[in-house]
Design brief:
231 residues; globular
Length: 231
């Protein structure tokens, strides 16, 4: 069987010697490849240095740039929105077009935070409480999350209380479009899903880092790739 083609949004970063770069974190690449995905990078389309440029200084996307994003999405069966340290209007547009296509989408960490800003003017995120619990490590469990029993996420992982890894400094608030479906015991929203979508989920943890080691992370990625393979 052919591997599902998964579009993956690349992240703006800076190197130790202050050079700007666009990257794919290795835990993401390796985890998705272990799960059986063929990765198709979706690079930022604007001619700007994303990392040092402030949100307010980003120019709007041109029609040509929007067309480039559409062409990229034409090539893939699903969209994976990874974590990172900074997102921009480009990320929000990619998500909006995937929603319009009812394309399978899985967002992790900052990817879920982008979902929480969908349709909102304010894209600010609050500092996470209990930083030592939430910004812990991606290769081991950090805390547990409680999952709404009637959610797609609960059906996929087959449980309503699971351990997760964690590496984030910001947390989200309620969103008018996405439904909150999982929480840590200190009240942080840990998962979002889009009602009525075939597969559109965001989780605050990193299932890609524990694929093949944790049954719940494995089930989540397997379900995402299975849906993307139907395209």
């Amino acid at each position: 069987m052919e591997k599902p083609l998964i579009g993956i949004v690349l992240r703006a970063e800076t190197t130790a010697d202050d050079r700007n770069c666009t990257c794919l974190f290795d835990t993401v690449r390796r985890g998705l490849q272990r799960a059986g995905a063929f990765l198709v990078p979706i690079a930022p389309v604007q001619d700007i240095n994303y990392y040092p440029t402030r949100h307010a200084d980003w120019p709007p996307l041109t029609e040509d740039e929007k067309t480039d994003i559409e062409r990229a999405l034409d090539m893939v069966g699903g969209l994976f929105i990874p974590g990172g340290y900074k997102f921009c209007e480009y990320d929000r547009y990619v998500l909006s077009r995937a929603i319009a296509r009812d394309m399978p989408v899985l967002g992790v960490c900052m990817g879920m935070q982008i979902m929480s800003c969908h349709g909102e003017e304010d894209v600010s995120l609050a500092p996470v409480p209990n930083l030592e619990r939430h910004c812990n490590r991606v290769d081991a469990y950090a805390h547990r999350v409680r999952i709404a029993p009637d959610s797609m996420l609960a059906r996929i992982v087959g449980a309503t209380d699971i351990p997760v890894n964690s590496w984030h400094t910001r947390c989200v608030s309620e969103n008018a479009t996405y439904r909150s479906v999982a929480w840590s015991d200190d009240g942080v929203i840990e998962a979002l899903e889009l009602p009525g979508a075939r597969f559109n989920l965001g989780v605050q943890w990193h299932p890609e880092a524990l694929y093949g080691q944790d049954e719940f992370a494995t089930r989540l990625l397997d379900a995402f790739l299975a849906e993307a393979a139907k395209a």
